[in-house]
Write a structure and sequence with these properties.
alpha+beta, 2 domains, elongated, 310 residues, Immunoglobulin-like
Amino acid sequence: MKNSLSAIVFGLFFAASAMSAEEPKIVEHNQLMDHGDGHLMDMEGGMIMGQNKDKLPAGCDKVSEDVKIEVRAGHKYSKQHPGTMFGFDKNEWRVKPCTRLTITFINEDNVRHQWMMHGLPKFMYDKGMFHLEITGPAKITGTLILPAEDKTYLVHCDEAQHMEKGMKAQLVVGKGSGSFPSIPGVTDPAIPDNYGPGGNQPPKPAAVPVAAKPGEKPTTPAASAANVATAAVEDSSGFFSGSLIIGLLAGFVGAPFLFRLIEERCKGMTTADALKCTLQLLTDLFNAIVRVVSWLVRRLTGKDKLLPKD
């Protein structure tokens, strides 16, 4: 009999302990000191910024409706959103313009959390914010009157890394003004996660194609424009090499002179000889232009102070 009674008592004690561990006792903070301008605080870590129960924003003739919402915050609400650590139980709320909104914010974690809203008119709300803050497990209630315009407001926890770890949401007033990215369960992330090979690697800077001289190390991507120009002149290995491009440009500019020179040098020759003469003149002219441009680049970069040699 004693053993059975002990087992029952132990079971009840264990069940009570488990329930208390899963559902922490929530302390209500309702004795806050008013510091003026809608700023209320107490000694236990509770705070309200932007409290406004009766002042109508511009464009609101009256309060359109009274809405009360309950927002729960804690680690357990992140489980439905992989990759997060903290979360709200809901990540989007919709109300009418000029609504008097009362938020009861319940923190179920043993850390500090916030329900902070940005973008409000600063002439009514200091720094454009409405702010509920509590060190949990606890709850706190605050009220504000929303402006008349259709707008989407960002809501988040401003504690270090809490927003980045999942505590962000949006409040849509009227038709809203679009949606914010990366709201858990509401909108797609701005930069989707990629866990494949090479995923989430920062893009590598494009390398500048600079040729290296024998015995010298290749030039880094931060090469100067002068070095790039020098390399373009010296590198004639590719079809679109710097030398070829420079030669073509010079050819277009000097085409009239070139035609007169060919006519004078190759006049009276057979077709085969005239073709050979023309090709030889083009080759000589091209090589001369490349040498001159290369020398100019070297003079500008201080690498050569002598005239080009044949």
